[in-house]
Structures are given as structure tokens and as C-alpha cells.
Amino acid sequence: MKKPNSPQEQAAPKRCHVLDLDDFSEGEIQSVLSDASAMSEILDRDIKKAPTLRGKSIATMFMEPSTRTRSSFEQAAKMLSADVISIGVSGSSSEKGESTYNTALTLQAMGIDLIVVRHPLSGTPNFLAKYLNASIINAGDGSHAHPTQALLDLYTINSKFGRIRDLRVVIVGDILYSRVARSNLWGLTKMGAQVVLCGPRTLIPDDFVANQHCLDNHPFKTVTVEHSIDRAIEGADVVMALRLQLERQSAGHLPSLKEYSQMYCVTSERLLVANPDALVMHPGPLNEGVEIDPEVAHGTKSVIEDQVTNGLAIRMALLYRLIAPTESGVSVSF
Amino acid sequence: MKPILIKQGRLIDPEQGRDEISDVLLMNGLVEAVGANLTEPDGATIVDAQDLVVSPGFIDLHCHLRDPGHRGKETIATGTAAAARGGFTTLCAMPNTDPPSDNRPVIEYVLAAARESGLARVLPIGCVTKGSEGLELAEMGNLAEAGVVAFSDDGSPVSSPHIMQQALLYGSQLGLPIINHCEDTSLSANGSMNAGWIATRLGLNGIPNSAEEVMVTRDIHLAELTGGHVHIAHASTAGTTELVRKAKAKGVHVTCEVTPHHLTLTDKAVLGTDPDVSAFGPLSSGAYDTLAKVSPPLRSNTDRMSMIAALNDGTVDFVSTDHAPHGITDKMCSFGDAANGISVLETALGSLMSLVHTKALSLPVMIEKLTASPAKFLGLNIGTLKPGFSADITIIDPDLDWVVDPSKFTSKGKNTPFSGKSLKGSVITTIYQGEIVYGAST
User: Fold this and answer.
1) Measured distance CA(A178)–CA(A146) in Å, rounded
2) B401 catalytic, yes or no?
3) d(Cα A224, Cα A199) in Å, to the nearest integer?
4) Hey, are the CB atoms on A123 and B335 less than 8 Å from each other?
5) A264-303, pLDDT tens digit by residue?
6) Is B122 domain-assigned?
7) pLDDT tens across B118-131, in order?
8) Cβ distance B20 to B33 under 8 Å?
9) Cβ atoms < 10 Å from Cβ of B380
10) What predicted TM-score, i.e. pTM, was given to this entire model?
């Protein structure tokens, strides 16, 4: 089995939190992807369990509904033999009005090593990371970031193409409110992809594209915007459709879901101009027929299920990276 | 009451155009004389002001004393004590109390509590509409009789153009201004900071400049139509300064104010206090700094520079603090959940002095914007040291370095983005109605 960390990585200061990909270097992302690749071997075993995190406690604190992210984290933690407890909105003290901060403090007081946080308000994981000693992994906060989703997307792209650099990656949909898009923007641009944002003007903030005032410093200076999906998809290597929240219509961003799907639904017909080997991705859950045609979602170009499987490997790699015992002489094996 | 002789200070009194080394003699709570080498009366308290600046007491036209109703955040006693420390001898208290200041008993309570504290003059502002709900005018006539100096629904913008128009008509009959927090809430919807790259990268809904400017435009038109006096609270955008500049040139009765924080900070403060953090790089651990959450939001540097220019050219009439004390849990939470507001009274002078030290503002202009200009707005005999006027005086050391430590604030509100920052310039002594209410007496 491969050793998960290159020597250079081990020399770098140990990472405490995963809040977004803005503070990951290209090298660290590469290192996580290669760790995940090693972890994925566990998934192929008959006995899907390694003792790596035995004696470590992980809490998932999901203050917003989630199926795949939450179960993915819990499954990943269990495969590495960590003990897992889960706190949700219903059935927890947040129903009694306890603040997120106090809930997290309580978990920390119980000796939890790592808290996985999902929260409807942007920056909540950053807030907890500032005041708690426990490691924090952001499992999605408001419109801010969803770094584990972006890492699993990078892993999926990398495992299909063997590279990320210079690929044309089109992200279609509600960029304005999407934490998936934000974390992918950091991750994809750091890895050298050519990112194209596609959607109606009402859902793509101008700030994501460098203007003359900040061209040199802007981290997304290679990113372009294309409001026509047909032009965006032309020559695309990856087409990532984002979930369209149904409330965007009532908030005035869209005339109707019908018009949105007419203009931006990823269909087989539209994919004809993409690279013949193009991948279709979606972070889920799907609104089939709105942002993605069911035929495409379940078609040959779709890697949506691979994304879910890869999510496990990525989350195992991150849990390992943050809380695996390294100094106490405990042998690390998995 | 002992006489006080302030000796050898640099007297800056913009109302009288004075900037000279001078003594100031205070007797019976009033200014007795101003001039060189005044004779010391028997039993006088001597205040040595050599190398210090002697100014009329500062006037704050916009602060929140939270009393009645939110005495956990501030009381009239703690708020006026904080004012004394910050050099303010006159405060206009916003009406967003509980109950709100839309009725006489609340106004009378505020005035009585302020008299009891005796640390600063408190001039109440009454509600424009009942309960500040924007639906029906409050009993403005009654409130005027009770002693309010202006009307405002504070943080609740008067959304209905019709109600705003009626308020301006009614207010002009009473000779009092309508202060509006200009914010079109359909444009600022759910926003928690300035719209722009930083909001976008943080995934926070942005409040665009247009949210303010759309309503400023409306209010200028309504003031022109009615002949009423509209005052734009805490102006924050370059566009607002343009609108007000043009309206003033046209003769519309519009005035406006700016806060110390909108003059000295930008939306970058939401990224934390580390000055080396790049808005385009990784977030620091200080990101989502709820202490920098305020309404209107801290804006871009372009806006900030426009506010400074507008203050210098007279478009912006004066500086108000928008002092908004909050409890610790109001800020110890996710950015979206955090309360808006900054505890300003005790840092106002220090932060404004940073503009003086960088020559963005002259010391006399800064003092004018804290004294003569707001006094003119109020139409009261304060804000200048003419004989017979109230002995309200602020003595400052423009060069004293200090570090902001909110735990030492007199205000109950410890919420300031200046926490831990070094400021240069401090209030040394504050005198209100001839009594030393803050500082050394000899």
C-alpha cells in the first residue's frame, strides 16, 4: 500500500481544518487526491474497515437537511474505525434554541476530535474553527463553500482524464448561491482548469470575473462567463450542472423553471458539441428535467454515481489528514 | 460649583473661527471668558491644557442608548458615561427603544434618566411613525412639545413614499427634520455586508450601493416637493454624496452625516483585523468578523474616499457615531445571525484622528464636524465657546497613542472592530455644564 503523504507534505504544518479550498495549494490538493486514491482501495476490500482512527471521535453536526454528504462522512469515519455521533436540527437542542456555538462547545467538552459541520449560514464553520480546539470540516455552509464536494469533483475528473490542467470545465446554473461552484472555482483554478461559468446574468455575480481594477490579483482571472449554454459546452471536457433551488423563481431571479430548463438544461442534444469523452457531473440532489435531463443523468457520460463513491474516499483521506495519530508512536496502517 | 480655568491649550472653536493658544474660564456652568492669560478666580480648578487641544464639547446626533427596553446592552447612565469618555457632551438618542419613542412618557423617561446621570445632554429623537412601523405618523406634535429634536424611525427606513412625504410636511410645520435610514429593503434583501467581491467569495448576500441611493434620490425629491428638511443618516456610498451635493446646489433642504467607521474602514474589515490579509487570497481565521457587521455596511475604499471628500467640501454636514452597543452573544455567532452595529462613542475621536494624522482631514475641520455643524443642525446654543454658552468642553491629546481594549469601555457595548488596534489621539478631559465628567481635574 502507498504511503499517503509525500515527505514534503509531512514537513508542511499540519492542517487543522478544512473550511474551503482557498487555503489549499496545488500540491496539497494533489496530495489529498493521492491519499484518496489509496483510501479507495479499502472500498474494494471484502472487509471495508481499517483501524486507523480507532479511539478518535467524530461528530457530524448537520443544521440543514442532507442525505449524501452526511452519510458519506459517517460511512468514511466508520470505515476508518472512528466513533461517530450525529447531531441534526430535529431532535437536538437547537430545537430548544441552543446556539450552534454552544452545541459545538458541548461536543468539544465530550472530547470530540473533529466536527463535521453543515449549516445554512455562510461562515459558520469558520466561526467554530476560530473558537474551538476541535478540528472542523466544512460540509457545506450557506453559499460559501463545500470543499469536500469540490475535492471529490477534482478526484473524479482526475481519475477519468488523468489530469485537470487545461481541461475545459463548464459549471452551469445558479452560481450566485452555490457553495459547490465557489469551492470548485478555487479548486479548479488552482489545478489549472479552464473554468467557464454558464447561467443567466441574474445568477452569476460579476465579481467572479476579474475586471480591470483587480486583474492581476484576482484568483479567478482565467475564469470566463458564457450566458449561452451551447457556446459554453462547445469543446467542454466536463459539464457540471448545479442544482437549481426552486425558490429562485419566487425570489425574482428567474421567470420560470420552464424557461430555465429551456435555456440551461443539460441535454444529450446540447452535449453533441462537447468533447466526445466529456463527463457530466452533478453534486446532487437532482432536479431531473430542470437542470439536467434524466437521459443525461443516467447516460454514458454521467459520472454522478462515481462522484458519490469518490466522496467516501476523499472524506476518508481528509479525516486521516486531520486527526490520524502521528506523534504518539501509534503505527499508521490501513 | 467651582470655577474652572483651562490654561494654555490650543483652542479650536470652528464656529468662531478661532485656532489659537488661549485660556478658557468657566463659571456657574457657563463659558465666562476666552482669551490669553485670564486671571485665576479664587478657588478655581486649574486644568493645564498645554500641548493639548481645547474644543467645544462634541455633539453626536445619532446614537443608541437602548434605554428603555434593552438595558442589558446599554443604559442612559452607561451610555452617557461612555459619551463623557469619548468627549461627547450632547447625544441625540435614537427612538428604537422598547417601547419605542413614539409617545410622551418614553421621551420624558429618557430626559429624566439623562438629568439623573448628569454626564451629558441627551436630546431625544422621536419616531416618525407609530411603533416605527411605517404605517401611520406618530403624534409628532406631542413629541415635539415633549422635547424631541428630530424624527426618525431609525433602522427601519420609512418605506412608503407617501408616509415620507406626509412626515416631511408635518415636520416642516414643526420646524423639525426627518432623519431617514435610506435603504430600499427589496434591494438589500437578506444582505449582511457590502455587495462586491468579498461578499461574493464569502457567500454572503451583498447590499448594493443602490439600496441606499434609490431611497436618497426619493427623499431628495420629496424634500424638494414639500420644502421639508430631510437628513440622510449615516451616508455610506459615493453615489449618495453625489446626490446630496447636487441637491444642495439646487437649494433642497437636505443634510447628511457620516460615521467614523464609514470614514476609516472598508468591507475588508469583514475579513478580520489582520491588515496584511489579501481580499484575493486565503481567508484568515479572523474572517466573517461579526464586529464589522453594521448597517449600512462598511463599503469599498472608493466609497470611503468619497465620504472623506464630501466631508471636506461640506456635502456631508457632520460626523455622527451611530453608537450601537450590543451584548457579547449578539456578535458571538455566525455572520448572518449577528446583530448590526458598533460601539463607537469611546473610539470615535481616536479613529477620526487617524484621518487627521494622514492629512485626509484637518483638525479644525474634524472638530467643526463634531461641534459647530451638528449644533447648527440642532439650532441650539451649543457647540461653541462663546461667553454665556454652556460650559461643554472636550480636551484632547492629538498625539497620545493607545490601544483599544473594549473590556475597559464604560459602554456596555464591547463590540468594536477597532478592538486591539492602536489609535493615536485621545480624549483627556470632558467638561459638561461646567463639571468635569471625565478625566483629571488638576
Assistant:
1) 9
2) no
3) 12
4) yes
5) 999 999 999 999 999 999 999 999 999 999 999 999 999 9
6) yes
7) 999 999 999 999 99
8) no
9) 16
10) 0.94
